[in-house]
Amino acid sequence: MFLQSGLLRWAAAVFAALGLLLVVVNAVFNGFNQKFQEEVAQRQQMITNRVELQRIGEVLVHSLSVTASSTHDAQLIALMTKHGLPAPSSAPAPAPTGRGR
Questions:
Q1: CA distances from 14 to 6, 9, 10, 17 (A)
Q2: Is the dihedral of CA 20, 26, 30, 31 positive or negative?
Q3: Fewer beta carbons under 10 A from the terminal one: N or C of the chain?
Q4: CA-to-CA distance for 8 and 10, rounded, in angstroms?
Q5: How many domains, the chain?
Q6: Hey, CA dihedral for 9, 11, 12, 18, is it positive or negative?
Q7: Which domain holds residue 37?
Q8: In angstroms, rounded to a whole number, what is the distance separating the alpha carbons of residues 72 and 13?
Q9: What is the pTM of this model?
């Protein structure tokens, strides 16, 4: 009888310790999971911002092209061409008049 009650106490203590260990492991995994979810959310935000910034960039390039085309600004057209942006028109721009640029 004594052997059985002693064995039951040890078994209960082992199972209690195992349960406590599992709680600690679960808490650690939960912390890692939360950290990874925050990283994924940050990356998703970067992707969302990149799409919005790309649209803003397209609008800026278009407005630069319209400005360069309407003012026939040779320096602006040269700057756009230097940086790989599309030229406002295929016709060559006239020489700049003395506007102080």
A1: 12, 9, 6, 5
A2: positive
A3: N
A4: 5
A5: 1
A6: positive
A7: 2-82
A8: 87
A9: 0.46
Give me the long-range contacts of 67-74 (CB less than 8 A, separation at least 24). Answer: 68/93, 72/96, 73/101
With vertex at residue 55, the alpha carbon angle to CA 61 and CA 77, rounded to the nearest 5 degrees, is 5
- DSSP conformation letters of the chain: -HHHHHHHHHHHHHHHHHHHHHHHHHHHHHHHHHHHHHHHHHHHHHHHHHHHHHHHHHHHHHHHHHHHHHHT-HHHHHHHHHTTPPPS-SSPPPPPPSS--
Whether 34 shows a pLDDT value over 50: the answer reads: yes
Least confident interval from 39-43, 75-79, 85-89:
85-89
- Cα separation, 48 vs 30, in Å, equals 27
Do the domain assignments include residue 94? Answer: no
Q: Is residue 95 part of a domain?
A: no
